[in-house]
Amino acid sequence: MDLTAETVDSLAAEYETTHPFATVEDEHLEMLPPTLAAGDYGWRDLEWVVQWYYRRTLGAVPNADRREREAAFAENDYETVHAAIDDALAADGTTATLESLTALSGVDVPVASAFLQFLSPDRYLAVGEREWRVLADREELSRAYPDEPGADDYAAYLECCRTVADRCSCDLQTLYRALWMLGCDRPNA
């Protein structure tokens, strides 16, 4: 299935009606950007982003691994995370923004990309093997998902997503949802 405007719109609409996290994601995409920008958030808001990243796969990440990664994030103190969010908001460019977040315990580039998605959903989207594979299978990206994605990998992914979103006349969150649906084990996907 090619990434056309019609396909992306259709798959994003399907995501909204079938993915169990669609409603809560919408709520957080509306609530978190201004809340994070204003600094008016609590620890549970921050934990939610990390939990969302691992739990959105609905069990694909083994429970023990997920808990270990979430616990690593919990080792950060609130002030350190608050400073990292502030630095990410003030940073100029994707690499500097990622560096602010990946300095935190339990935050690698993929988890940092989840924070970016909820900091500024019009500019960023989360990266994972599933979304990357969809783009690579359609020759939008020229390489396989890296074992440990770095800032340069994320920048390439993001640029690719922005190009596809422009071509399909959609926003990044619509594209994210279409990529997610295409990454499901679906016939003719």
Secondary structure topology:
Layout: H1 5-18, H2 22-38, H3 43-55, H4 63-74, H5 78-90, H6 94-102, H7 109-119, H8 129-137, H9 151-167, H10 172-182
Brief synopsis:
By secondary structure, the protein is mainly alpha-helical. It has helices spanning 5-18, 22-38, 43-55, 63-74, 78-90, 94-102, 109-119, 129-137, 151-167, 172-182. α1 crosses α10 (172-182) and α8 packs across α10.
Report what the structure shows:
With 189 residues, this protein is mainly α. The chain has one domain. 67% of the residues lie in helices and 0% in strands. It is built from 10 helices and no strands. The longest helix is centred in the first third of the chain and has 17 residues, at 22-38. It starts with a helix and ends in a 7-residue tail after the last helix. 32% of the residues are buried. The mean pLDDT is 92.
Features:
67% helix; 0% strand; globular; 189 residues; mainly alpha
